[in-house]
Amino acid sequence: MKEIWSRRRVLRSLGLFSTVVLGSSLLGCKHEKLSSKLTIQIGGPKGEVVFIPDRLRIKPGETVTWVLQSGGHTVTAYHPKNHSAYQARIPVEAEPWDSGLLVQKDATFAWVFDREGVYNYFCRPHESMGMVGAIVVGRPLEGPGLAPPQAELPLAARKRLGELVAWAKSL
Length: 171
Ligand SMILES: [Cu+2]
Description:
This protein has helices at residues 7-13, 17-27, 30-37, 155-170, and strands at residues 39-42, 51-52, 55-58, 62-68, 76-77, 108-113, 117-122, 132-137. It is of the alpha/beta class. The chain has one domain (39-170): Immunoglobulin-like (Sandwich), CATH 2.60.40.420. The site of copper (II) ion has 6 residues, from loops.
């Protein structure tokens, strides 16, 4: 699995956004097409600390792109590599991701999900306010992402994760 830096982001930072749109349509860029369908907004229009939507089901091999709408947030997989006190809440052997802090409006972070199963993630600054999300890739296979939320997680995150786990199990 690998991180994909959206061409749009890279080129926008160079001030070449309009060129990219034209270039993408001419080249039929596959990632741009997927991104438009599998996009999650980070932060609400009034600065709400949420992922919109907070749950998404995709097919294995698809790319999810998060776009910063407001505020400063991260998109961080539940994994001991990202937080030493936390257990993984992504499929065994899946690689964890962490966007780092995104602060510029329209900044994007993209990740390719190859391994089937249930992934839970959080925002570092706002996990305690319940800013978490879930991605189901293919079937919601039994795995760490379906486990009851661990006691060491902040209460609001635990509550929201409980809802997301119930949703994943219902698929
Ligand atoms: Cu946040």
